[in-house]
Amino acid sequence: MVKAVVGANWGDEGKGKITDMLGKEADIIVRFQGGANAGHTIVNNYGKFALHTLPSGVFYDHTTSVIGNGVALHVPTLIKEIQGLVDRGVPKPKILVSDRAQMVMSYHILFDQYEEERLAGKSFGSTKSGIAPFYSDKYAKIGFQVSELFDEASLKEKAERVCVTKNVMLEHLYHKPVLNPEDIYRELLEYKEMIAPYVCDVSSYLWNAIQEGKEILLEGQLGSLKDPDHGIYPMVTSSSTLAAYGAIGAGIPPYEIKKIITVCKAYSSAVGAGAFVSEIFGEEADELRRRGGDGGEYGATTGRPRRMGWFDCVASRYGCRIQGTTDVAFTVLDVLGYLDEIPVCVAYDIDGKITTEFPTTAMLEKAKPVIEKLPGWKCDIRGIKKYEDLPENCRRYVEFVEEKIGFPITMVSNGPGREDIIYR
Ligand code: GDP
Q1: How far apart are CA 321 and CA 402, in angstroms?
Q2: Given 12, 99, 227, 312, the catalytic residue
Q3: Residue 44: its pLDDT value, please?
Q4: Cis before residue 197, ω within 30 degrees of 0?
Q5: Contacts of 232 (CB under 8 A, 6+ apart)
Q6: For 172, which DSSP code?
């Protein structure tokens, strides 16, 4: 059976933890989109890890980790990450990389930086990992697919061709040093050396695995609201964050994805620019940020402080719907235990009109949160294993959210560890 683990919101919902936990039952874990721009934080018996490229299943010795064709693959990051695990005593994971995955080149990272510099104050808050330039090139058909590394003559010719286009931009738009095709060719050959042991026809591998009844997890990065089509465009990422894209980014039939586990955090956080209706500021935000996640809400890749807000029922209901949610995993609930009252955004006020429908970006910019307050439970709920054992106000909070978002919360996460989970 194929299951997808995806985010309902802006990312950082705790997908890594849920994937790591579900990975126990999985044979194969697949990354199907995104690159090394966001990260998952995972806490397990080997320690605390920030993963950027590898799927969260790499810590088990019974799983195979797959980098699907939809991923923006930065080869040096992948190799460094594998080495980083091995150095800390994690058994060397089994890793397969799709021969159809495309590679993030050093110039993609440069273009990302140059564009942010050019936009200055109007920037998108990119993590400058080259993701937007990478996907632009992929769809402009001047990207490099892993399979192309193995045909050196055409590779050389293509490197020259790509440099012509890139150099016009470098010279005339960014006023930066131009690329030398020889350097690009050499970079590609280095990537070939590094990646060769892992290359695989992933869609065929997964097709066979499905026929054999294997358990496959698709692990999404970021969340619904960062999807280029259905998110808060243009403050989005450059690849689809939706479970539906899992079929394309892994190369499997869409009808094989039987369960869509949408991860939803008990409060909101976001990185980068863009409308964030339930955002809070000042000491209120600082306290939630300090207490949030596992050791504070700071970017796993960038270390940037995350923007904080209360739970947003409008965004989360939409985020769950657009994912095609079958199950909601409601995470980081333990963090809210310090509050006397918990504010929740239940609707948006847009020019005096109250709505629970998530609007397009221009309208979203105008939305003001309609807040309802729920009583807090004022205690530590970590370690609780049964739903009935949660304090009454805590259950009320879960049930209130469930009713508002309209999808079943079947898992409640009350701590960062694998075993900190309550099934309903
Ligand atoms: P992802 O990108 O969706 O995987 O999200 P992050 O890596 O940002 O994960 C969110 C953070 O919350 C990580 O530091 C996790 O270890 C932590 N975390 C996940 N679930 C829980 C939970 O239920 N409680 C607490 N306190 N922390 C959690």
Answers
A1: 13
A2: 12
A3: 80
A4: no
A5: 225, 226, 274, 275, 361, 364
A6: I
Residue 240 C-alpha from the chain's centroid: 10
Which residue in the block uniquely carries the two structure tokens 């079929």?
A: 247
The SS3 assignment for 117 reads helix
How many residues in total does the chain contain? 424
Amino acid at 304: R
Q: What is the distance between the alpha carbons of residues 9 and 271, in angstroms, rounded to a whole number?
A: 11
Q: Residue 206: exposed, middle, or buried by beta-carbon count in 10 A (0-12, 13-18, 19+)?
A: buried
Its pTM stands at: 0.94
Report the separation in Å between the CA atom of 197 and the middle of ligand 1, taken as the mean of its atom positions: 32
pLDDT tens for each residue of 372-423: 999 999 999 999 999 999 999 999 999 999 999 999 999 999 999 889 999 9
Burial class (CB in 10 A: 0-12, 13-18, 19+), 273: middle
Helices (H) and strands (E) in the chain, counts: 12, 21
| Residue 266, both tokens | 């008990």
Is 327 a residue of the active site?
Answer: no
